[in-house]
Automatic annotation (TrEMBL):
<keyword id="KW-0100">Branched-chain amino acid biosynthesis</keyword>
<keyword id="KW-0479">Metal-binding</keyword>
<comment type="function">
    <text>Catalyzes the dehydration of 6-phospho-D-gluconate to 2-dehydro-3-deoxy-6-phospho-D-gluconate.</text>
</comment>
<dbReference type="InterPro" id="IPR056740">
    <property type="entry name" value="ILV_EDD_C"/>
</dbReference>
<keyword id="KW-0408">Iron</keyword>
<feature type="domain" description="Dihydroxy-acid/6-phosphogluconate dehydratase N-terminal">
    <location>
        <begin position="75"/>
        <end position="384"/>
    </location>
</feature>
<protein>
    <recommendedName>
        <fullName>Phosphogluconate dehydratase</fullName>
        <ecNumber>4.2.1.12</ecNumber>
    </recommendedName>
</protein>
<dbReference type="InterPro" id="IPR020558">
    <property type="entry name" value="DiOHA_6PGluconate_deHydtase_CS"/>
</dbReference>
<comment type="pathway">
    <text>Carbohydrate metabolism; Entner-Doudoroff pathway.</text>
</comment>
<keyword id="KW-0411">Iron-sulfur</keyword>
<dbReference type="InterPro" id="IPR042096">
    <property type="entry name" value="Dihydro-acid_dehy_C"/>
</dbReference>
<keyword id="KW-0311">Gluconate utilization</keyword>
<feature type="binding site">
    <location>
        <position position="161"/>
    </location>
    <ligand>
        <name>[4Fe-4S] cluster</name>
    </ligand>
</feature>
<keyword id="KW-0028">Amino-acid biosynthesis</keyword>
<dbReference type="Pfam" id="PF24877">
    <property type="entry name" value="ILV_EDD_C"/>
</dbReference>
<feature type="binding site">
    <location>
        <position position="228"/>
    </location>
    <ligand>
        <name>[4Fe-4S] cluster</name>
    </ligand>
</feature>
<dbReference type="InterPro" id="IPR000581">
    <property type="entry name" value="ILV_EDD_N"/>
</dbReference>
Amino acid sequence: MTADSHPVLAEVTERVVARSAATRAAYLERIRTAAAQGPASGPGRGGLGCANLAHAVAACGPDKLALTATPARNLAIVTAYNDMLSAHQPFETYPEQIKRAAREAGGVAQVAGGVPAMCDGITQGRAGMELSLFSRDVIAMSTAVALSHDMFDGAVLLGVCDKIVPGLVIGALSFGHLPVLLAPAGPMTSGLPNKEKARVRQAFAAGEAGREELLDAESRSYHGPGTCTFFGTANSNQLLMEVMGLHLPGSSFVNPGTPLRDALTAETTRRALAAAGDPDRAMGAVVDERAVVNGVVALLATGGSTNHTMHLVAMAAAAGVQLTWDDFSDLSAVVPLLARIYPNGDADVNHFHAAGGMQLLIRELLGAGLLHDDVYTVDGPGLARYTREPFLDDGELVWREGPTESLDKSVLRGAADPFAPDGGLRVLHGNLGRSVVKTSAVGPEQRVVEAPAAVFDDQAELLAAFRAGELDGRDLVAVVRFQGPRANGMPELHTLTPALGVLQDRGQRVAVVTDGRMSGASGKVPAALHVTPEAAAGGPLGRIRDGDPVRLDTLTGTLTVLVDDGEFDAREPAAGPSGATEGTGRELFAAFRDAVGPADRGAAVVL
């Protein structure tokens, strides 16, 4: 099942290890010191004073004696539960499930804190979207606050969606001496087919469908508890957590509200308790250079969310691992595309799971030498453990070997028969800076687009031009600038896809170039995203003018404006929009906009 490492996997991993030598060593020393100084399990919670401990257990009811008079281990629950996000609503019942499982295993669990969880699907096109990316850093800090009470021997993190999982991971890695597991909630059951949802959205953008029809289609797509079923950032998060060894094997895509889902949550609790005090199973040991590279490979092999060219970089940095876009690019050249999940195909994640899911994906990549098996996971040593899938056998949770071949080759394939020989993401370089593009979602005829620029300083300008017919009948590269993290928090630009899709379907050659984001939901229209340096930081996008010929070439990996270098460099950059930075809480994030790093370094504030 496993094979010798592919030479490119080995080379990229070796340079990540070398590049990270100093920062990784410093991180490991920091968590070793924390482990030595932290309170041990047992009476009095180690070094805590009596007053400190009394505050911590005052409301613990039946668990008070276990925390004060016996050597019971104590788990922190950090939850992103709210009723507004379908993916997070199932977490309402998780704390009680976890507490019950902990008591049955002789331990204790306490809700240590909550973190915010906002939804890009709700805020798209609204001012609140400008808080979205920064919420990751708020979540990281909130997780650190929750774990800072010196009461805990391990943690269970409850989160699913876009910024929530990366934020939880970044925060928990500051406590990397503890064992930490993530307990997923699972995807909602399949609703309206994604292809039909996309058709109605595009018809609405073209004025061929009314709002009532659009709302009906959206409501039949997003219809119940669980993660949205397309392969956006939320489900990419789940894939990453499993292949990086922070989920139990096969637990990512089990639907909520099922006996198997509940059994996995209880087992996650037991594993976290059992791992307490084991340095091999501490979070900082699990998330090492090989685990990070495994995450990149799995993302590429499935055409996952472009957001993870930032989030995975930031999570790695929190563990002292220095990951770069060049690592993504070099791996993408050799990692085959094995999955077609919307927007890269018609299927959803439930279909992916049924076709063989994570077990077959990991089996195939290990067999091709494209994943590291020599990692330590929350399930134990070796990633090959993750080719097994969970089942209930007469009510008891057991694992058995998963499928050895795909049950639906329109959704999931083996490494010898991929959908494409290279990965679903590409990194572009050129005189417009560096960017990422999701190639798995566009047709071969769209891999290269050269057309005059149509320049906009925000997405509302582009949509107004579309509605006025100003974009009709011509090829164009829509340049949407001043959308980076320093400008306005780097909002998602979801609302552009239906309108530009209409133009593309009319036979126009269309592409997008932006320093903003379009997430895992990006597709159909080729889009060079996260252009770095961004326009607000003096990047070249600020010097593009309407009509400049722009070439987006995913075959050669280039993004260029075809203007004489001397003329282009001499241009005065645009001042940018004088848009609102107040209202909807945006004024509270001024310090974040000033401090945030570039997209290719994770667009991070706290690192």
